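[job 4471] stage=fold_predict status=RUNNING
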Amino acid sequence: MGRQIVLLDDEADILHILTEALDSEGYNPVPFVNPNRALEYCLASPPALVITDLLMPAMNGQEFVLRLRERYGEAVPIVVMSASVNMAAVATLPIQAFLSKPFDLDDLTKLVERLLMATSNNMPSSVSPLVW
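[job 4471] inference complete, writing structure tokens
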């Protein structure tokens, strides 16, 4: 089984597509529609990578990212995705990359591979997000 990637989006259809795409690449995607459950899961054991939507009910993606950073610092790479882009807000988030919805699944898998490779090589990760 591949490295664990937590996926968080309030839209089940998007989670299904992302889960299938990452699973077919040999990763172990763990999908969540509920940000609170995703946070509980991540705080219990750090995943290799997190991909989260920005705009969600209950807890927004910004709060989710900040809570993960409080616990793990930069140890867990985080990718934020959103159809609603406020680049000023995104630029202040401590994330490795931003994906504007809709995005190409090949771009996603290449980004995931690059981030996981950088993490496994202990390369410092950027805190100013890359836009894909």
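[job 4471] summary: Residues 124-129 have pLDDT under 50 and may be disordered.
[job 4471] exit 0
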